[in-house]
Amino acid sequence: MQVEIKIDSSCTEPKIIIHTASITEEVNTLMQRLSENAPPILTGSKDGKMEVLEPDDLFRIYAANGKVFAVTDKGEYLLRLRLYEAAERLNPSLFVRISNSEIIHIKKVKNFDLSFSGTIYVELTNGTTTYVSRRYVSKIKKILGM
Q1: CA separation for the pair 77, 72 (Å, rounded)
Q2: 107: burial class by Cβ within 10 Å (0-12, 13-18, 19+)?
Q3: Which long-range contacts (CB under 8 A, 24 or more apart) does 21-29 make?
Q4: How many angstroms separate the CA atoms of 5 and 14, rounded?
Q5: Which strand ranges, in their side-by-side order, compose the sheet holding 129-132?
Q6: DSSP codes, the chain
Q7: For a disulfide at 62, which of 41, 54, 102, 142, Cβ 3.0-4.6 Å?
Q8: Is the pLDDT assigned to residue 36 strictly greater than 70?
Q9: Which residues contact 74 (CB under 8 A, 6 or more apart)?
Q10: Which residues contact 115 (CB under 8 A, 6 or more apart)?
Q11: Comparing C-alpha atoms, which of 46, 99, 97 is closest to residue 71?
């Protein structure tokens, strides 16, 4: 992506124009980010109390038994969102979907093990282990520069 800034003293307010051959996921994400006023917050409940969850504290968000959970150092929280809604509230450069039911914080990954056939074994810094489903392996390899 190319970024260009033009200084014009007659301009009264900033104006952004996107030139593209087609609407891609990257363009949609960019438009969404530019139109947001404040980043939406993520809240979860634990022990009957609602807490604001800081994205930097999240290890993973996953769906199980029809519910969505977020895992932090403080424990596991129940979210009142669907997995895709939680993903929309998170920075796509830090949080990546590894299966239809799980999103991980890429900076909380201790290591990736590619020795498994067809999938990638993931160990998070909190000791949790999970797998990248076959469907998402190429996306993870692209993120890792492989």
Answers
A1: 8
A2: exposed
A3: 26/1, 29/92
A4: 10
A5: 109-113, 120-124, 129-132
A6: --------TT-SS-------SS--HHHHHHHHHHH-SSPPPEEEEETTEEEEEPGGG--EEEEETTEEEEEETTEEEEESS-HHHHHHTS-TTTEEEEETTEEEEGGGEEEEETTSSSSEEEEETTS-EEEE-HHHHHHHHHHTT-
A7: 102
A8: no
A9: 46, 57
A10: 121
A11: 46
Mean pLDDT of the chain: 88
| Residue of 92, 103, 108 lying closest to 56 (CA atoms) | 108
Is residue 146 pLDDT above 80, yes or no? Answer: no
Beta bridge partners of residue 132, listed in sequence order: 120
CA nearest 103: which of 66, 146, 55, 142? Answer: 55
Both tokens assigned to 58: 């999240």
Burial pattern 4-41, b for ≥16 Cβ within 10 A else e, equals eeeeeeeeeeeeeeeeeeeeeeeeeeeeeeeeeeeeee
Tens digits of residue pLDDT in 86-119: 998 898 888 999 999 999 999 999 998 887 677 7
pTM given for the model: 0.71
